[in-house]
Design goal:
The complex is a heterodimer of chains A (275) and B (293). Chain A is α/β, with parallel strands linked by helices and 275 residues long. Chain A has a single domain, classed as 2-enoyl-CoA Hydratase, Chain A, domain 1. Chain A is 39% helix and 21% strand. In chain A, α5 packs parallel to α6 (166-185). Chain B is 42% helix and 18% strand. Chain B has helices at 11-18, 31-38, 46-53, 95-100, 108-124, 141-145, 148-160, 176-180, 201-208, 215-222, 226-231, 250-268, 273-285; strands spanning 2-3, 56-59, 72-79, 82-89, 128-134, 166-175, 187-191, 195-197, 237-239, 290-292. In chain B, α3 (46-53) packs across α12 and α9 packs across α10. The longest helix of chain B is centred in the last third of the chain and has 19 residues, at 250-268. Chain B starts with a strand and ends with a strand. Classes of the chains: A alpha/beta (275), B alpha/beta (293). At the A-B interface, β4, β5, α5, α6 and α7 of A face α6, α7, α8, α9 and α10 of B. β4 of chain A pairs antiparallel with β10 of chain B. The complex binds zinc ion. Residues 22, 24-25, 27, 41, 43-44, 46 of chain A line the site of zinc ion. Zinc ion binds next to loops of chain A.
Chain lengths: 275, 293
């Protein structure tokens, strides 16, 4: 959850100044250079957050993306309140801030001419947390891929399950994976792209279940939070712990691909799908 | 605006009013009281249920990749005349045993053993019964290194299409993904003083309240009690505990759990596999509340 306060700070910087400060190397990059480089630091290759719609634009062929299930948005069914206020207010705040109504954007389109379905998480919306609406959209898109025999790609960017929805959010792990299980049964490819950060309940469900798991460079990917582990074992963790590179080394990721090369990479993978 | 579910509203209030004559009724307990009962040191754990309700238990060991995790145990078991595959988190009965069982916080090898046994159940055409009682999956370096997330994800996915009936019983702490990793059942039963939560109340408090001492507030807000979860249609059934909690009467609670499992198994074993899987998919597809405009 600490993640989205960081995202807000970054946004403020972007609005108020002409440059962006890289969170990894600290260098100042002109806003237009940052934008042209797809929110990737030209200096150290740090991959910053990018909106779901921007990703859809990057992934799908021009004019082919058709967004689906746009009517789904969160509801504060537990009447959840913490010290800083109600979940209900947070939902409205995040809708206004991002212009989207859930932490994921789903749709269909063509990738280098190959029809496919995608769900793209947006970290700006409540830290990309997995809520009931998120789970519903990811499942509905999986069902669409299932019914139409189309490959399914999910881009993850999430701090994990959405606490403000209690166990309802935990159960979205089972709900989304039930959709993945059906794709598996029908031998429909499911590709997971893990971006910074992908943690907690999202990693422990669909994000790790790709037939291929692809990650962006340096992405933090893990189950338990760094701080929780450090508290449990009583020692500092190595720098590269829970990074895409660490996961590649331990056998959980097929490849690490730069953002600018992702479309070409995914197109190539899909070209091997001999349906 | 349409809210997609929310049929059984206010069940909690009805149930609480019904039992006013009891000594310490569920209604008088706060969510935090229930958290404390669910973690009571004398609360019956899996091995107590095995002793009381299963006439036979053949423990099977190992995940075939790395080791044998003592936080999750499992094997062939017989309940009344029904043969099943039993899998569950196993807290210790003493401090020493808890260290040996890692307080029922499983590592990837525990979840992989559980999956192996579920597949074995399918091979033997046996229903699966899982007992859930864990603070959560173990947060440690070696667990992450060996794929804690992947092992839980895989179990959740495979359970969705496991071709035998699954009954899951939350007997104590249902700690987040660590619980769900063996919890995708056709029926989810929960003891009346058990909890099931997306994050521990302490963890939630330290993030959203910036102070773990707000855990009682977080426990309330998170809706982690059996009654709340029945209202939200996450669980299917509550198994009522005696008096002050399960720890006060082992015989009574184990009998109740036995009856509840048998009752559900009797229905489930007669359902054709394709129907069972379709119903399971529908069950999990329907969980969650959101708006459609
Ligand atoms: Zn940089």
């Amino acid at each position: 959850m600490a993640w989205y306060s960081k995202a807000i700070t970054e946004k403020k910087q972007q609005k108020n100044t002409l440059w962006v400060k890289c969170k990894q190397c600290g260098s100042h990059i002109w806003q237009d250079e940052w934008d042209n480089n797809l929110n990737v630091c030209p200096n150290c290759n740090f991959h910053g957050s990018i909106s779901a719609h921007q990703r859809a634009e990057l992934l799908f062929d021009d004019g082919t993306f058709y967004e689906m299930f746009t009517d789904i948005s969160p509801v504060d069914s537990l009447n959840f309140k913490d010290l800083k206020g109600s979940y209900k207010d947070k939902i409205e705040e995040n809708k206004k801030k991002t212009g989207i109504s859930e932490s994921v954007v789903s749709g269909r389109g063509q990738i280098s001419g190959i029809p496919a379905v995608a769900s793209i998480m947006d970290f700006r919306f409540l830290g990309g947390s997995l809520g009931s609406g998120t789970g519903e959209k990811i499942l509905q898109a999986a069902n669409f891929a299932y019914d139409n025999h189309l490959p399914y790609i999910v881009f993850s960017a999430s701090g994990g399950a959405r606490m403000q929805e209690g166990v309802l959010s935990l159960m979205q792990m089972a709900k989304t994976c039930a959709g993945v299980a059906r794709l598996n049964k029908k031998d429909i490819p499911f590709i997971s792209v893990l971006t910074n950060p992908t943690t907690g309940g999202v990693t422990a469900s669909y994000a790790m279940m790709g037939d291929l798991n692809i990650a962006e460079p340096g992405a933090v990917i893990g189950f338990a939070g760094r701080r929780v582990i450090e508290q449990t074992i009583g020692e500092k963790l190595p720098e590269d712990f829970q990074t895409a590179e660490y996961l590649l080394e331990h056998g959980f990721i097929d490849a690490i691909v730069n953002r600018k090369d992702l479309k070409e990479y995914l197109s190539k993978v899909l070209s091997y799908y001999n349906r | 605006m349409v809210v997609n579910t929310g049929v059984k509203v206010l069940v909690q209030k009805e149930q609480t009013q019904k039992k006013v004559n009891g000594k310490q009724v569920a209604s008088q307990r706060t969510a935090w009281d229930i958290v404390k009962i669910s973690r009571h040191p004398e609360r019956p754990v899996l091995q107590d249920y095995i002793k009381h309700i299963f006439s036979d238990f053949m423990e099977l060991h190992g995940d075939r990749y790395f080791s044998d995790d003592h936080a999750i145990i499992g094997g062939f078991a017989t309940i009344a005349c029904q043969k099943v595959m039993l899998i569950g988190h196993n807290k210790g009965k003493s401090a020493l045993e808890n260290v040996e069982r890692n307080f029922a916080m499983a590592k990837p090898e525990g979840y992989r053993k559980a999956l192996r046994l579920m597949k074995l159940a399918q091979r033997f055409n046996l229903p699966v019964v899982t007992f859930i009682d864990t603070p959560g999956a173990f947060p440690g370096i070696e667990a992450e290194e060996r794929g804690q997330a992947e092992s839980i994800a895989k179990n959740i996915t495979e359970m969705a299409s496991l071709e035998v009936p699954v009954v899951s019983v939350v007997i104590g702490e249902g700690g987040s993904g660590g619980a769900l990793g063996i919890g995708v059942g056709d029926r989810i039963l929960m003891l009346s003083n058990a909890i099931y939560s997306v994050i521990s109340p302490e963890g939630c408090a330290s993030i959203l309240w910036r102070d773990a001492s707000f855990a009682p507030d977080a426990a309330e807000a998170l809706n982690i009690t059996a009654h709340a979860l029945l209202n939200h249609e996450v669980i299917d059934e509550i198994i009522q505990e005696p008096g002050e909690g399960a720890h006060t009467d082992y015989q009574k609670i184990t009998d109740e759990v036995k009856n509840a499992i048998l009752k559900n198994l009797r229905t489930l074993v007669n359902i054709p596999t394709d129907v069972l899987l379709e119903k399971r998919f529908e069950k999990y597809s329907a969980i969650g509340k959101f708006q459609t405009s």
